[in-house]
Amino acid sequence: xxxxxxxxxxxxxxxxxxxxFDINPHTQLTAICDFDKLAVxxxxxxxxxxxxxxxxxxxxxxxxxxxxxxxxxTEHAPAAIKALEAGKHVLSEVIACKTLxxxxxxxxxxxxxxKVYMYAENYCYFSYILEMKRLYNxxxxxxxxxxxxxxxxxxxxxxxxxxxxxxHWRNWLPPTYYCTHSLGPIITITHTRPVKVTGFIVPNTLxxxxxxxxxDWGIFICQMDNNAITKVIAWSMGPRDSIWYRLHGTxxxxxxxxxxxxxxxxxxxxxxxxxxxxxxEKRSYKPEFVKYKEEARRYxxxxxxxxxxxxxxxxxxxxxxxxxxxxxxxDMTLPGILAYRSALSGNACLExxxxxKEEVRQRYENDRWSPDPNDRSLPGQPLPSILGEINIPDExxxxxxxxxxxxxxxxxxxxxxxGEEEN
Length: 423
Ligand SMILES: NC(=O)c1ccc[n+]([C@@H]2O[C@H](COP(=O)([O-])OP(=O)(O)OC[C@H]3O[C@@H](n4cnc5c(N)ncnc54)[C@H](O)[C@@H]3O)[C@@H](O)[C@H]2O)c1
Description:
By secondary structure, this protein is α/β, with parallel strands linked by helices. 35% of the residues lie in helices and 22% in strands.
């Protein structure tokens, strides 16, 4: 069978995907697109037969079957729509869209194209998340009642690596927006979707230290379509990183370890006899991937990146719906947008629309509410922080820029040394 040709847009995070499409037997990397010359140079080290573009429109003209979107976090939906219109299958990094209107447009574009769109929420593929999904499907903890999930990542020490300018999305994105690493797995494990959301913000105290004008913590509570409640900590900046999921059901509960050995799972079950004697069972273990264990573990994010690519390619080959389709991408992404809106309106409880339904989509097709500084010309736009305008002295950005330049000189040197060694 002819291999599917792959193009990767954005070659920082995209470098991991490029590698994974390279090792997949059904695909081959043919093109990349990035306007960051150093990132391209670094990526191309030791590679030859790949076309390189710096302009997305030109890149889309390239003969390829798949476009992988690893461009800026808040620019995925317009790029996905263009790729679908150009007849490509799309794998999109997080988040799926920046506004509700973009979400509507994306769903319609996927339906019209007949192509596969998959949302690359890799956290749904951690070994312990796949195990929780298996246990849930087997009914081990019964029906989902309450859950908590969190993605706390204090990125201050690596801010010069994660941002490329004062305007970079990480400097202004409200924390609730980057919510799918936490909420995503709850949705894939329980097959529920959020129907209502109430958002809360811990205002900017630490983030401004590195030049961020959005807030530190984004927290929201969702009511799911089976009446369960989920507490979500979206990407939040504070000391002590944590990636943690806890689910309570009618027959038991399960959670991964929170502070260390986080891929270890605790499972608890309780059962009543007819005489109301209760039998409890507890076990802790480290689940492993059922298939491709060796291969997956060689790649990023505990092997989860490997499965995203594998499942996406499988869906194309089999002509099947991808495991995280555009509607599920909306269920994961929209609560984060709405949670910020809720926090700004005194924690109002808001409906999370179901974009599977066209009549629902019509109500949101003009909703371009956005904290992106580039969207400020539209009336009624929010600021990125609940505190209002945050003024950061120029010297902060100069400090980050100095660290960035130092790092880039080191990268350049490393590339040159690597090049000499190869010669
Ligand atoms: N799932 C995960 O675990 C994970 C981890 C890291 C990043 N991400 C996601 O990956 C995406 C990229 O993040 P990143 O960390 O690589 O940083 P980034 O957002 O700074 O990188 C984006 C890259 O795309 C390039 N780019 C952006 N717009 C472009 C354009 N119009 N034309 C040409 N090139 C363009 C930039 O030069 C840069 O190299 C984001 O959406 C982020 O949320 C996901």
